[in-house]
């Protein structure tokens, strides 16, 4: 049963009679709220039980065939009751109202089908006035969330894990923002460590200034590859000949000791790389509030962490390193190294320090790390260490994990940064578009369109299954216009937009003299019922942090829109009918538009 319902609000205050203006309601103007209250009050009175119990039990089913609202009677916990019998009795006692068309008792469930006219009247004017703001709520008002995502390592390849983190993190940022939270987006760069010593030495040997300025990320990576090869070669020689490795170590030590000359070189690598990052992330509509990184964690904070653990006798020496015992938190967590024998900080201690810094700086209500499942165990250790240190805000931390992508490659071979993937998506999309020259001529900026559509292909492929599932990266599948793909959603948006454009005369005052009773075809009714679920879908996605909740919904929506096209025409129809249908299509477009935006996709108007 849990699987078939979209949403179920769990806690709100207990009060006997629920009125329309009580504040627990997600939005009193939400289509489902008033009918829900009506039924709640009625059933609670009939059974002599608390209204909150009934209100909590009513859900919105995923499939509209099960009703617009559903009440699983066992959730009322009436011990010793035959729920099937009770259902049959109850449905006959519910008086008729403007909200409800039919109520059906089905096994232990009561299924409520709303009056389509009521849905049209409540939903369509709201969508058509609120437009891009429809679906925005202030549920999270006054609450602050920090979302850390993407976090690539400078001079190392941008792998599929970073791609997914970018896409899922971008989605979560938009979703929290839509729900009224104040969102701070962080990119925690891998910008510290021995590899920078290596890079500096490599740059002296292989660096070309112009190449670096033109394409810093790729150039640094090339240098990294070459100098690593040198090291590998020297490794076979006796110690005294291992010059490169020694120099790299020395350079990093200078960085660690605050040598300004060394730091200047490193800063230059970092800042030019960031300039490029900013440009590329903007293609995905992502703008970070801060590029933090491992380098920015204050040494002092890390020392404080180490000292505090020492004072509390939580730190032990093991083979020269300092380790913390986490088995008291959870058996399998074992020991975690916090400081190496040479006293340099490591990934884990930096993360602990960074978490402290962030809490002091932001006083967040929630902090989310979007990082691949390879680091599941690591994040458990991180959270456990913070817990061991008695930071009560550790409960506000959440690791959002995801599965692997297999076979992500591009024509140029190795993916060094995000733009290699995005460029290839654009090129492939463009190659498809030029096959239809007539259509191509109608598009104002075909290259830009190819970019947007190509990117939506990459993104939808990534977000259509549950986060935890692994998937196979496939250019052909993701860029196809057939089946459930990004280009298909974009196409659907374009088609709706062109209906609006062709009927601008009606669109100008679409809300006046609308006669919803003309929308009584079953395709239209099904469409508006799906549309009404949009706010609930967003709440559900916020609960489970699953982009697929939104993606699958948009497919349901667009499939139903397609079914409507077969019979519900606008062109050459009588004015009243044309207008009513237009209002329906235009509302559907706004919802599709807003949903795509939350996913991080730019909806396009023409393709
Ligand atoms: N730079 C890391 C990597 O590429 C990811 C950082 C994840 N975030 C964190 N706070 N540890 O593996």
Automatic annotation (TrEMBL):
It is an enzyme of class 6 (ligase). It catalyses: tRNA(Arg) + L-arginine + ATP = L-arginyl-tRNA(Arg) + AMP + diphosphate. Its EC number is 6.1.1.19. One of its GO terms (biological process) is arginyl-tRNA aminoacylation. GO terms for cellular component: mitochondrion. It comes from the Eukaryota. GO terms for molecular function: arginine-tRNA ligase activity; ATP binding. Coiled coil: none annotated. Residues 489-607 form the DALR anticodon binding domain. InterPro entries: aa-tRNA-synth_I_CS, Arg-tRNA-ligase, Arg-tRNA-synth_N_sf, ArgRS_core, DALR_anticod-bd, Rossmann-like_a/b/a_fold, tRNAsynth_Ia_anticodon-bd. Keywords: Aminoacyl-tRNA synthetase, ATP-binding, Ligase, Nucleotide-binding, Protein biosynthesis. PANTHER family: ARGININE--TRNA LIGASE, MITOCHONDRIAL-RELATED, ARGINYL-TRNA SYNTHETASE. NCBIfam families: argS (TIGR00456). Belongs to the class-I aminoacyl-tRNA synthetase family. This is arginine--tRNA ligase.
């Amino acid at each position: 049963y849990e699987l078939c319902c979209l949403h179920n609000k769990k806690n709100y205050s207990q009060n006997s009679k629920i009125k329309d203006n009580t504040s627990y309601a997600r939005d009193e103007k939400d289509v489902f709220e008033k009918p829900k209250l009506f039924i709640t009050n009625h059933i609670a009175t009939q059974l002599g039980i608390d209204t909150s119990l009934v209100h909590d039990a009513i859900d919105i089913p995923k499939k509209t065939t099960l009703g617009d609202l559903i009440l699983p009677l066992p959730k009322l916990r009436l011990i010793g009751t035959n729920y099937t019998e009770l259902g049959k009795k109850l449905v006959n006692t519910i008086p008729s109202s403007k909200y409800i068309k039919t109520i059906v008792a089905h096994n232990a469930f009561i299924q409520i089908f709303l009056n389509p006219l009521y849905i049209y009247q409540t939903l369509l004017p709201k969508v058509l006035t609120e437009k891009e703001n429809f679906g925005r709520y202030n549920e999270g008002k006054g609450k602050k969330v920090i979302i850390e995502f993407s976090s690539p390592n400078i001079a190392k390849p941008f792998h599929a894990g970073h791609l997914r983190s970018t896409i899922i993190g971008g989605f979560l940022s938009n979703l929290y923002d839509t729900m009224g939270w104040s969102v701070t987006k962080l990119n925690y760069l891998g910008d510290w460590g021995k590899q920078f010593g290596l890079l500096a030495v490599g740059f002296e040997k292989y660096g070309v200034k112009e190449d670096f300025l033109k394409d810093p990320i790729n150039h640094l990576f090339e240098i990294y590859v070459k100098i690593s090869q040198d090291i590998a070669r020297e490794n076979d020689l006796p110690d005294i000949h291992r010059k490169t490795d020694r120099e790299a170590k020395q350079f990093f030590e200078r960085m660690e000791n605050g040598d300004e000359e060394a730091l200047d070189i490193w800063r230059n690598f970092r800042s030019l790389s960031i300039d490029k990052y900013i440009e590329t992330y903007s293609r995905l509509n992502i703008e970070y509030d801060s590029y933090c990184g491992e380098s920015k964690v204050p040494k002092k904070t890390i020392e404080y962490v180490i000292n505090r653990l020492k004072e509390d006798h939580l730190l032990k020496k093991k083979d020269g390193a300092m380790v913390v015992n986490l088995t008291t938190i959870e058996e399998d967590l074992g020991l975690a190294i916090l400081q190496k024998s040479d006293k340099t900080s490591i990934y884990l201690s930096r993360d602990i320090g960074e978490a402290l810094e962030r809490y002091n700086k932001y006083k967040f209500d929630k902090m989310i790390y979007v990082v691949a499942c390879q680091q599941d165990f690591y994040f458990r250790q991180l959270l456990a260490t913070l817990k061991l240190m008695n930071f009560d805000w550790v409960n506000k931390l959440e690791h959002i994990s995801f599965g692997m992508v297999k076979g992500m490659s591009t024509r140029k071979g190795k993916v060094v940064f995000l733009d290699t993937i995005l460029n290839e998506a654009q090129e492939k999309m463009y190659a498809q578009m030029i096959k239809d020259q007539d259509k191509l001529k109608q598009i104002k900026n075909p290259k830009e369109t190819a970019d947007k559509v190509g990117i939506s292909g990459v993104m939808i492929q990534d977000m259509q299954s549950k986060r935890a599932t692994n998937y196979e990266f496939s250019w052909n599948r993701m860029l196809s216009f057939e089946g459930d793909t990004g280009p298909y959603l974009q196409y659907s948006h374009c088609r709706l937009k062109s209906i609006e454009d062709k009927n601008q005369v009606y669109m100008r005052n679409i809300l006046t003299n609308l006669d919803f009773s003309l929308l009584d075809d079953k395709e239209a009714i099904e469409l508006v019922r799906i549309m009404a679920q949009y706010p609930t879908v967003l709440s559900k996605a916020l609960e489970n942090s699953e982009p697929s909740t939104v993606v699958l919904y948009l497919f349901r929506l667009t499939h139903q829109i397609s079914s409507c096209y077969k019979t519900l025409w606008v062109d050459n129809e009588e004015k009243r009918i044309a207008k009513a249908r237009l209002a329906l299509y235009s509302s559907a477009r706004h919802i599709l538009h807003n949903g795509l935006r939350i996913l991080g996709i730019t909806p396009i108007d023409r393709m």
